[in-house]
Amino acid sequence: MKPQEPLNPFSAFAELGRIKLNDTDLDGVLRRIAELSKQTLTGVSEASVTLVRGRNAYTAAFTGDVALRLDERQYVEGGGPCLQAAATTSTLSVPDLAQETRWPGYIRQAIGAGINSSLSVGLPLQDKVTGALNLYATKVDAFDEDAVVLAQTFSGYAAVALANAHVFDATATLAQQMQAAMESRAVIEQAKGIIMAERRCCADEAFLVLSKLSQDSNRKLREVAAALVAQASQGRP
Fold first, then answer.
1. pLDDT tens-place values along the chain, 237 residues long
2. Which residues span the domain enclosing 197?
3. What's the structural domain count of the chain?
4. Does 33 share its domain with 117?
5. Rounded to whole angstroms, how far apart are CA atoms 193 and 199?
6. Could you tell me if residue 18 is inside a domain?
7. Residue 121 and which of 3, 68, 154, 211 are 20 to 30 A apart at CA?
8. Domain boundary among 120, 143, 170
9. Is residue 146 part of a domain?
10. What pTM does this model have?
């Protein structure tokens, strides 16, 4: 079977530049980065993206089971190229795994799976999260200087995706908090209106009544207000 021609890097980067987080999630972006890096870099057998928060590492994206298994073996052992690249945000190339003396358990499993060289590129720190783009190859010495530069460019897109996801999530969370606050304010105002109508009092007095009900029942002000509005809507006193 004739090997598939590598994808033009400019086409890959153009596609990545068009991806928007409101069209997909972070894992979807990272999965596409892994897929495109495999398709673009000559000799890559499998690719993955590791994310690390504190002591917890996981594979957010992978192109095949071999990459996932090798990543997870490193997590279990607490060491390996992907974890070192993530910890130091550096590029770590292992041109010949058979000559590597570090991480013996991982090395044995990698060679047993037919992987003979690897390249991991660390992702910059973002909100206490680090990570690495991991490339696995069956060929010894698979990654030359050009491959390293391309891999670093792909990792740059992954880093931007992480940063954008953080901003996107923070913005979404803020919007949800603001919406909840507005809804809370609205129901409290409704409850005050009900008290004002029943007791023929002013807004400040109605709020004091509502606050006392909250304290006496040991419930949040919004919960008391919502219960009062619900009772009024059902015609109960």
1. 334 567 777 677 677 767 665 666 777 778 888 898 898 888 899 999 998 888 889 898 899 999 999 999 999 999 999 999 999 989 999 999 999 999 999 999 999 999 999 999 998 766 677 889 999 999 999 999 988 988 888 887 777 766 666 555 554 554 454 456 556 777 778 888 888 888 888 887 887 887 888 888 888 877 888 888 888 777 655
2. 172-233
3. 2
4. yes
5. 10
6. yes
7. 3
8. 170
9. yes
10. 0.66
Residues 217 and 142 reside in one and the same domain: no
Residue 182 lies in a domain: yes
83, 74 Cβ separation under 8 angstroms: yes
The single residue listed with the structure tokens 């994310």 is: 51
E-strand spans in 5-85? 46-53, 56-62
Do residues 165 and 179 share a domain? no
Q: Is position 16 within any domain? A: yes
Contact 60, 103 (CB under 8 A): no
Helix H or strand E encompassing 85: helix 81-88
